[in-house]
Amino acid sequence: MADWEIKKTLGQCCGTERPFEVGEEYFAALVETETGLERRDYSAAYWAEQRPQVYCFWKTRMPSAEQKKKLFVDDEMLMTFFERLADEVDPEKIKFRFVLMLILMRKRKLKYDAMKIDDGLETWTMRVTGENRSVEVVNPHLTEDQIEQLSSQMGQILQVDF
Question: How buried is 92 (Cβ within 10 angstroms: 0-12 exposed, 13-18 middle, 19+ buried)?
Fold first, then answer.
């Protein structure tokens, strides 16, 4: 299983290296690199001028050092990220999506409905809570250690404690 280089916010714009001021709005993004997904932060000005190509992003503010950390992502953002990974064929992204599905199940956003096996590929059908639709998720048969490692990496990327 590949390890991704996951960094917490450095408190500065990735494009200009200018430090963010306390309270300044900036964009946190997941960028696809040769080694996987990497978190990068961009100032609002750089974002408006350069509009870097990213996999997904969210807007946030630079907290003060003594301010308690807030949840930077909500359930809707997690669901959007989950759905963006639906057509991925890269094994690491399939694993990432599966762990994200487990988190969304814990948050009661997805409910297990059924399982099927076609040509040795196990697929779970999940109902989206509050909606009249289902999604399919490939089960990559992760070990508990792999699930824990991916959950930790997701938490680092999104600055959330799963």
Answer: middle
Cα angle 90, 95, 98; round to 5: 125
Paired residues of 26 in beta bridges: 43, 60
| Number of domains making up the chain | 2
Residue written as token pair 């196990």? 122
| Under 8 Å between Cβ of 107 and 126 | no
Is the backbone of residue 18 left (phi > 0), alpha (psi -120 to 50) or beta? beta
Same domain for 97 and 122? yes
Residue pLDDT, tens place only, 31-89 = 888 877 788 999 999 999 999 988 878 888 888 777 655 555 678 888 988 999 999 99
Region of 51 please: left (phi>0), alpha (psi -120 to 50) or beta. Answer: left
Residue 74 is encoded by which pair of tokens?
């909500």
Q: How far apart are CA 130 and CA 132, in angstroms?
A: 7
For residue 102, the enclosing domain spans: 75-158
Cα Rg, the chain, nearest whole Å: 17
Angle at 36 between CA 104 and CA 15, to 5 degrees: 105
CA 19 to chain centre: 24
